[in-house]
Amino acid sequence: MRILALETSCDETSIALVDCKGTLRQAQGSKLRFEVLKNIVSSQIKIHRPFGGVVPNLAKREHIKNLPLILKKLKTYNLKLITDAIAVTVGPGLEPALWAGIEFAKNLAKKLKKPLLGVNHLEGHLHSNVLKNVRMNFPAVALLVSGGHTILLKMDSLTKWKKLGETRDDAAGEAFDKVARLLGLSYPGGPELEKLAKIGDPKAINFPRPMLRDKNYDFSFSGLKTSVLYYLKDHHSEHPTSNIEQISVVDVAASFQQAMVDVLVGKATRAARQFRARSIFLSGGVAANKLLRKTLQREAKNLGVNFFVPPFKFNTDNAAMIAASAYIRHLREKKLPIKADASLNL
Ligand code: KG4
Ligand code: ZN
Question: From CA 144, how far away is CA 44, in angstroms rounded?
């Protein structure tokens, strides 16, 4: 099945064309095969940067403008002839942004006379590892860390999973972005903060590791963000960002990043031990963080379990993962209504 997928849940407009092969049985045995023919991502970061975050109606306007432009780049393909279905993210995400993709997808499906498949964006991240075409072993523990979500799951197969825990307040990416902002970095702060952290001392400041020792698999990052704020306030009286040079910004960045990674890796590896997982999966935008990837990979190796993380280009939002997830949902014969659901869950 060749799927043309659209992703517009936040600030990336993406269209992908993906060949998907395999049966439901093969999905359960992790033997599906995917070939990404095209995966075009147009980022709106520059447009939202002056506002310090994504502005939903601006995002919608940009998606409406970008979708036809991206589709034009696929004009060498006779889409009517070569596609079997259109897929679109229906949630979770920013409602106006989601609608932009859905309306475009509906019209396209009508024009090409193809079925339209709704996709859960979180399932897209969860399934992003399949794009590597490697056989994954189950049960697996999956850590999904993005700008809007932080979820730990136990997966029995590509089609069966159970949520173990999630964040009670800020998502991991949100925490990175908020702390980056405190340090005077521009949006989205995660990658910027990582750059600073690389040259800082991760042991310089002992920030808290929230809920690391709690027996559950939930997370909480807003207290950690507040600790960074207090640290900055304590080290110079008025505006934390005005004389930022007075404190070592790189040490704050490195120490904060280390605290985040300790909590995420600590909980994921404890779950892997408890559920006798054979693999650990990492996905979502924050999976692009090198310290997180490296640390989780090392801990998985120490536990004797496999570690899977998608290539960088499939960590942050992209339509290739939406196509893969659409295919898996199609095999499961579980349809999602074609309407925006901003708070759709796993
Ligand atoms: O998955 P994603 O592209 O969008 C959502 O579905 O939310 O994730 C975006 C999030 C942002 O918060 C961004 O700051 C974070 O992922 N992020 C990172 C890194 N790259 C992206 N956080 C830490 N380190 C990175 N290298
Ligand atoms: Zn995402």
Answer: 23
E-strand stretches of 22-65 = 33-43
- The whole-model pTM stands at 0.94
- To test ligand 1's pocket by mutation, which of 263, 282, 316, 318 has the most ligand atoms within 8 angstroms of CB? 316
Going from the first residue of the chain to its last (346 residues), give the mean pLDDT of each consecutive group of 10, the final group possibly shorter: 98 97 91 96 94 93 98 94 97 98 98 98 96 93 96 96 97 97 93 97 96 95 96 72 69 98 98 98 97 98 97 95 98 96 96
User: What is the distance in A from the centroid of ligand 2 to the CA of 124?
Assistant: 8
C-alpha distances in angstroms, 39 versus 19, 71, 92, 201, 312? 12, 11, 21, 37, 13
Look at residues 78, 50, 82, 58 and name the one whose alpha carbon lies nearest to residue 8: 58
For residues 346 and 151, the answer to whether their CB atoms sit within 8 Å is yes
Structure tokens at 49: 């940067």
- Which residues fall inside 5 Å of ion ligand 2, going by CB? 146, 317
Q: Which long-range contacts (CB under 8 A, 24 or more apart) does 296-302 make?
A: 296/143, 296/264, 296/265, 296/268, 296/269, 299/265, 299/268, 299/269, 300/269, 300/272
How distant is the alpha carbon of residue 171 from its chain centre? Answer: 11
Q: What is the pLDDT of residue 83?
A: 97
